[in-house]
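User: Um, what's this?
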Amino acid sequence: MRHRCNAALRPLSVIRYEHPLNERIRTLMRLEDLYHRAQFFAAQSDAPAHHAALAVLFEITDVAARADLKTDLLQELERQKQLLVPLRSNPAIETRVLEPLLADIDRASAALLAQTGKAGVHLRDNEWLMTIKQRTAIPGGVCEFDLPGYHYWLHGEPASRQNDLNGWIAPFLPIYDGLAIVLRILRDNDRATSQTAYRGVFQLMLTTSKVAQLLRLTVPLDLPCVPEISANKYALNIRFIGVTGMDRGSVYDHDVEFELAFCNL
């Protein structure tokens, strides 16, 4: 017997899954997640949280070093500005939404232009931090007998550690502000439809002339399965995989109603 999920999804009863469709958006989303975690852990007061914040900063440095993010973001922000400025004369566009967005783009672009060097260079030039980074790659490699100086830092005043962490995070903020605007515009520019995965499987041929850059799936929060997505410019395949009981790891053998959104810049 087939079970169907409630199509009238309440905002507080759903979970959203996002799937980037190219390497550029994938990198921006990885950095977005890492920035959020770094800021969360840095805002705590205990030493384990500050260790976690520093470890995340090392991850940001590695991800940001894979591409020329600054140039890429500047080009995309300028492109979006050129698309948005003409909308000022469109009576259907709310200026109270448009003007703050244009101001955000100008501020983010100015901050990126003022930044010198690649993202994370301030960490890579710090020998003490790079020693810690190398040890974090070794399981248990940051014990007090391996890094007594780091052990001392972790036992210092929380406010002093937070001050250090905020100083190390600050040079990353222009990159974060730029990518946050790009991802905001991308997510807001979506086309959403209601779909059904029959017996946990959904397939769609992609015939649109403009290939989507991001997929967003919204499903009931209490649904005991998660989407496994594969896509290219020709087709989209989604399998809902069970996460509990006998269904764990296998295709969820029920119909799943979900919202599917294609997002483009």
Summary: The longest strand covers residues 190-197. The chain has two domains: 11-22+191-263, 26-183. Confidence is low (pLDDT under 50) at residues 1-10. Residues 26-183 form a domain with the YacF-like fold (CATH 1.10.3900.10).
